[in-house]
Amino acid sequence: MTGTGNIVARKAFPAAAKEKLTDTQLRANLRRATHTIRDKRLRVVGEVPDWEALRVAGAAIKDDVLSRLPELLERFEAAATAAGAVVHWARDAAEAAALVTDLVQATGTTEVVKIKSMATQEIGLNEELEAAGIAAVETDLAELIVQLAGDTPSHILVPAIHYNRSQIRDIFTRNGLSALTDDPPALAEAARRHLRAKFLSAKVAISGANFAVAESGTLVVVESEGNGRMCLTLPETLISVVGIEKLVPTFRDLEVFLQLLPRSSTGERMNPYTSLWTGVTPGDGPRTVHIVLVDNGRTDTLADEVGRQALRCIRCSACLNVCPVYERVGGHAYGSVYPGPIGAILSPQMSGEGANSTLPYASTLCGACYDACPVRINIPEVLVHLRQTGPHPAAERAAMRALSWTMRSRRRYAAALRAARRGAAPVRWATGGKVRRLPWPMSAWTAARDAPLPPKQTFREWWARERA
């Protein structure tokens, strides 16, 4: 794990995607799951007459937060501290993971229960705890499946989306969770029996937060299974890891997001469990509450006037479920805990290390993600922006200048099209009606892309012949 945690891709996206494209079972699992979720989302969103107004309001609230983030963070810290919580600050993933590990070790426990949390995945917390001899038990069903499989999540909302029911049954069987069939209720019951003892014996729980209310110091977790409620109420110590962008100014602002989030994420009108806690309440819930506020590249992202809109993200995963690229390669190809369209703009800004510079190219720029985003993050705009600001080889810059010069003249463009038709004649460059391999230096382009052969005539040529 690097200082920025698990947001750094270690393999260039084109290479990783090429490997995943050969997994036909993965593609079938992804298609079935994403289409089911997106269809549910469309139905419940269609019921809301002011959906677009809610999207605009959500974007405006998040932009207001980003414009006065230091002030709101200080207000949140003061309110949470007054309510009995202990607030900590972490500059990066390494500092946050070490801080949480120290807090757990101070309790003397060797096992903690965890609520599904993107922030803890981001900082590599489970790995840090394991190195310190502390077992972290994931209690979200999908996260538990991934953990038992020795795998990593591939989706923001549904971490085990790349598995089907039979595969999950086999994972449970290998780990001693008896599930005689792959019927979903049977699988859920096997997980429930396994987790019940963990909940009742745990002394420490670790969570993230969907929202943090600045005026009151309140943290909010929304979930579907009830495991989060168990973690938040039973243990003696609760440690919450929260990205600094999760703030909302007032309690009233939650109204907007509690309408946007469930519809956009699980296709539900409201989430089954909404848990809110403010500091410590004697005789009710944890006796000690720690809140770790994490930067880890968010301040750097905030400095980019175009890219900062990525920090509006409420982790609903709607953009993943409509993305044609994600549907075909899955989340692991992105190499970051934040996959899909939002990961393609968030990860490179939070950390430019490793192969993250290739992630802005993991898109067709179709715009489906922007249409689905409940807080109107213009992901295509940010993708293009990041492509322009990234490094470009001299040969690519020269090719783009030549293309620009050609397309500025109708006659030059027509001549180029005629030359392209003649150049496509060699059979070795094309199979199945597509250009699949070009000689160097264009081989760098065709290594990851196919293109249709140029048509026998252009539209202008067809038009001229027909009108003649």
TrEMBL record:
Domain 4Fe-4S ferredoxin-type: 310-377
InterPro entries, alphabetized: 4Fe4S_Fe-S-bd, 4Fe4S_Fe_S_CS, FTHF_cligase-like_sf, Helical_ferredxn, LUD_dom, LutB/LldF, LutB_C, NagB/RpiA_transferase-like
Residue intervals of the LUD domain: 73-294
UniProt keywords, alphabetically: 4Fe-4S, Electron transport, Iron, Iron-sulfur, Metal-binding, Repeat, Transport
PROSITE patterns linked to this entry: 4FE4S_FER_1 (PS00198)
Domain Lactate utilization protein B C-terminal: start-end pairs: 388-466
Highest rank taxon of the organism: Bacteria
UniProt keyword Transport, yes or no: yes
Gene3D superfamilies per record: Alpha-helical ferredoxin, NagB/RpiA/CoA transferase-like
One Pfam family cited in the UniProt record for this chain: Fer4_8
Name the UniProt record assigns to this protein: Iron-sulfur cluster-binding protein
